[in-house]
# Entry
Amino acid sequence: MISFAFCTYNRADRLEALVAAMRAQQADAAFEILVINNNSSDDTLAVLERLAALPGVPLRYVTESTQGIVPARNRALAEAMSSDILIFMDDDELPHPGLVAAAHHAIAIEGAQCAGGRVEVSFAPGQRPRWLEDNLLGFLAEVNHGPDAFWITDDTKPIWTANVAYDMRIFRDDPALRFDKRFDRIGNVIGGGSDAIMFRALLERKLRIRYRPDMAVDHFVETWRLKRSYFLRLHYRGGLRFGEHRMARSPREVLGMPPFLIRQLLSQGAQWLAMWASGKPGALRQGMNAAHTFGALRGYRRRGRPAAIAGTSA
# Structure
């Protein structure tokens, strides 16, 4: 059995088209559609009830009452624990034909323990701003590692829960392998990173990870993400969590901060201002680097506070 899952929050208007595209998938194994409703306040539950009553691939839905993408994803793992394969995608996407068949082949035939594929960012006519260069699309969840399948052995070719499949034995055999609450994201907001942490955890365990370009989804970007400030805040939040949870303790500190990071921030900030003032291309990317370093400094300093050590910081 395959569980084809997504977590959803207040996107009732997208569910009918998404479920129809999921039900249209063909595969060599039976599959269900599993929906984790994360306390939506719109018509999500009514829409899911109606869709569950329609013929075709069975749809099963549950409500995860703890708000946040990490509790929702971990609830999906718990609900699919008896399945052979769990496929994740997001509620702002549509799967291409053949996704389920490709995921099943990668895991059941090729022996992958995790498989991921292409995520193609889709824009409405006139929606994409001129400044949004192709090299920034990865920060809108785009994944495209080329037309050929290959085994992933390091973090240079990541795959995300926007389009990923797992052999559920890895979670049954390792109860500690779950999405990390420290990298949670609540509601339709910026930040998170729990899928990146999961990807690194799989690499550390030396599991067999497969890239399959024939696993593909279209990802539809909301307008509020198409602003320069989004990219800066995204990198600030990523730096904050890196500094607080993952950065090694420095042997030298100035006011609770590593001197090398202070120098790095000053250098990156100066380059950003110079590039922005002169209108040079790449100014936004440089600003994102500076924002990440600033976040890392704040996160590093925050974890050194007594409240943070006690686990009571906000």
About this structure: Residues 228-309 form one domain. The chain has two domains: 2-225, 228-309. Residues 306-314 have pLDDT under 50 and may be disordered.
